[in-house]
Design brief:
The chain is of the alpha/beta class. The chain has one domain: Rossmann fold, CATH 3.40.50.1820. The chain contains nine helices and eight strands. The strands form two sheets. A six-stranded parallel sheet has the order 2-1-3-4-7-8, sandwiched between helices. A two-stranded antiparallel sheet has the order 5-6. Helix 1 packs across helix 9.
Length: 231
């Protein structure tokens, strides 16, 4: 199976290395993406959420058969945009501490901006649960590999059009919110999970750690992703 791996904010395809190795060892073909505007020497100017969704859609179109799409953090919105664009080609979507972004929503328009991009903020911007496991060394590792996120990816509105997206099975690997609370939000109509609640097949897997499990629990994340893809 072809597996498309979409990094979250401030990360490139290299951040998926532990998961990539595990997927390939399990016989899958992994496609970890570094999205437009985030590669070495690339300008973030003019890059928006749709630019990133179109990049994923183009990769889907270049492959044969069904694919699995995986998105971490802000990459979940990109994954969902690709599901909406190609619902007949995506066998499953996996959200790593993320979820689907509804039509008209933005990923995050409150982050500190510098020019056309959003650099990795100071740790004080994040909630304590997000920083769990990110001691000084691990935070420094994140800071060392971080690249600025194009401003338009965070602030451009999501646009969805194909309700077949609700038929695509979804797996949520949740690190910062326990399953009972997530289910409670879904059942209560919380807008944060409105699209997830409308999906017809949702599985939730707990992986308690901070918001960057690829840094804090890489082996456990790799195992959870392989299991989500294969079961």
């Amino acid at each position: 199976m072809d597996i498309i791996l979409i990094p979250g904010f401030w990360l490139t395809g290299d951040s998926w290395a532990p998961v990539t190795r595990a997927l390939e060892a399990a016989g899958h073909t992994a496609h970890p993406l570094t999205l437009p505007g985030k590669g070495a020497g690339e300008s973030p100017a003019g890059i928006g959420l749709r630019t990133h969704i179109d990049a994923v859609t183009a990769l889907i179109d270049s492959l044969d058969g069904e694919v699995v799409v995986i998105g971490h953090s802000g990459g979940g919105a990109i994954a969902y945009g690709a599901v909406d664009a190609r619902p007949d080609r995506v066998a499953k979507v996996v959200y790593v501490d993320s979820g689907p972004l509804a039509d008209g929503g933005v990923i995050n328009d409150a982050l500190p901006v510098k020019g056309d991009s959003i650099p990795l903020p100071d740790p004080s911007v994040f909630e304590a649960a997000e920083l769990d496991g990110l001691d000084g060394d691990r935070w420094q590792l994140l800071a060392d590999i971080a690249v600025p996120e194009p401003l338009g990816v965070a602030t451009e509105q999501q646009r969805l059009s194909d309700e077949r997206r609700y038929d695509v099975p979804a797996v949520v690997i949740t690190s910062t919110m326990p399953e009972p609370l997530l289910r409670q939000f879904m059942e209560g109509g919380h807008p944060y999970v409105a699209e997830l609640a409308r999906a017809r097949d949702v599985q939730i897997v707990e992986l308690p750690t901070g918001h960057w499990p690829q840094l804090t629990k890489p082996d456990e994340l790799a195992a959870a992703v392989v299991d989500a893809v294969t079961r």
